[in-house]
Amino acid sequence: PECRLCCRITIIHRRSNNVWSVAAGAIPDGSVRDGFRIRAVRDRVYIVGNDDDVDVPGLMRRGAHTARFRGGTLFGVYEFLERFAGVRFYFPGEMGTVVPRARRIAAHGDLSVKPDFTVRDCCISSAGMWPDDMDANGRPVRISEKEADGLRLLYKLRLRECAERPSCCHGQNRFRIAERFSDTHPEYFMLRKDGTRCTGTNFTHSWQGRQLCHTSPVWDVIREEAIDRIRKGAKSVDVMPQDGMQPCWCAACQARFRTTDFSLSSGYATGLIWSNTVAVAKAITAAGLQGSVTQMAYGTYRNIPDIDIPDNVNLVLAVGGPWSDSRPDIRDRQVAFVRNWSRKLGRKVAWIWTYPMKNYGRLQAPGVPQHAPHAYLSFYGRVAPYINGSFAETSCGKGGTLHLIHNYLNFYAFSKFAWDHSFDLDAALAEHDRLMFGAGAKEMGRFFDRLERLWIGKVAIPSVIGETEIGPVRIKGPSELDLWTLIYTPEVIAELGRHLDRAAKLARADPMAAKRIAWIRAGFYGTLQEASSAFMRRRPR
User: Around Cβ 145, how many Cβ atoms within 10 Å?
Assistant: First the structure.
């Protein structure tokens, strides 16, 4: 209401491209899925991108929490608001959205934008409780799960995450081999060392069952059905094996493995899985089709194979990710792994799957903020020349000990870098502190910096990402006793509280800044303090 535009804004969807062509010039390249163009012509601003005809508010009302549609024009509107109006979208809601007052918005120039990463995806849908489920005083605010999921969708859109990425997550499950062939083709399934077949569907954990024999004709089924899916319109087919792949003890598989070392680090199934993957990819091409297959270098088949890999194989790599910045030796091995695969392909890796999470494996730190935007960009900056993007798996479910708000600056840093690799993180964080916290900016900056140094320097640093039967997990972490008596000691927690106290005192004349500081106190400091107190109460004396 306080803003009066100095120009007229015309938002044009791709389906209206004739209007755009006449009025403002060429439309964006249709191959750039999320790209857009902003052009100021005299007293009018044109914003145009490639879009699908989707009712976004309707999706939010229905509780959809993923964005599987093109939204280039929407991204262009966000860019206009950020670039020319000074709006900042840190996270949805009053606390995380900065809208400055202005009498004029001066837009100028001709701006064509496309993302540096085509795959940009943070695990917002299962990253814990929604930030607005507590008020500035730490009191619960009731919102429905449907409403929370709708806000997650808005969050992903405002971060301008990609609408889709080539699926690569144990895609052989979606062929439903176990459900269809357990009784009729037991030879399709892994032979255990005791002579039994891994048939059936009733297992406590999914990776215990549905394991296949990868020298059996099951790959003929996968190949023919992959071709059929591509022929019916699929762009890509995920052929990644079931999680926790184990050695098949049939004679044919043992001959292909050529080893007695069945540890994950040996990569004993590399040649077998990649030769089958390449055969599917070549069969699709031989059928005169344009589709591709996706495969992850993962677990027992993560090594680089000797065979050539055709262009219609989308390679995905599983690597630890940002927390490895705490251990340069581990980080550099991960970067080398990505670089060497890229060189093998002669092109960039389709995307990487990373694990900047907590409450997983043996890294259990409930209530502790995993705030580390510098670690994010340190890692992604090193692998950026070799990848087309990344998925950041930040959690394992919506458990009560996970807090979405703890990741908000990690997500913001990653998303900005994913669009523009020249993104200046330090400048953006200084701006964030000033816009969010007013006169309390410096103290809040010190608060967040201390959180990151604690997390990376004390919590993540002794932890090791290891390959296990269910993929890369953190196999070592600080004990609960060390967490609360050596790292987040009562003295350290009191120090963090003093930063917040000083920030609140400095910002008391600015109601919105004061409200945000109180909210951060509840969302970051409050969870830390509560977890520490809970441990101290139950600690044996």
Answer: 11
Provide the 3-class DSSP secondary structure of residue 256. Answer: helix
Q: Are 323 and 463 in contact (CB under 8 A)?
A: yes
**CB burial string 256-282: b at 16+ within 10 A, e below:** bbeeeeeebeebbbbbbbbebbbebbe
**Would you tell me the crossing angle of helices 373-383 and 408-419 to the nearest 10 degrees?**
30
Looking at residue 387, the DSSP 8-state letter turns out to be: B
Helices 218-231/270-286 angle, 10° precision: 40
Going from the C-alpha of 360 to that of each of 237, 370, 393, 397, the distances in angstroms are 29, 13, 11, 10
Rounded to an integer, the average pLDDT of 57-81 is 85
Closest to 311 (Cα-Cα) out of 270, 269, 351, 348: 348
**How far is residue 365's CA from residue 317's CA, in Å, rounded to a whole number?**
26
Pick the range with the lowest mean pLDDT from 105-119, 367-381, 410-424: 105-119
What average pLDDT does range 331-351 have in this prediction?
A: 96
Count of C-beta atoms within a 10 Å radius of residue 40: 18
- Sign of dihedral through CA atoms 192, 196, 201, 203? negative
- Is residue 311 classed as helix, strand or coil in its secondary structure? coil
pLDDT band at 466; cut points 50, 70, 90: low
Could you tell me whether strands 110-113 and 36-41 are parallel, antiparallel, or unpaired per DSSP bridges?
A: antiparallel
Q: What is the DSSP letter of 27?
A: P
Rounded Cα gap, residues 74 and 252, in angstroms? 54
Q: Distance between the two ends of the chain, CA-based, in angstroms?
A: 60
Tell me the C-alpha to C-alpha distance, in Å, between residue 295 and each of 173, 177, 305.
13, 18, 13
pLDDT in tens, 290-299: 999 999 999 8
DSSP 363: B
Report the length, in residues, of the chain: 541
Q: Say how far apart CA 382 and CA 16 lie, in whole Å.
A: 40
Model confidence at 529: pLDDT above 90: yes
Strand order in the sheet with 292-297: 119-122, 389-392, 351-354, 313-318, 292-297, 236-238
d(CA 323, CA 372): 8
Res. 470: pLDDT tops 50: no
Helix (H) or strand (E) holding 296: strand 292-297
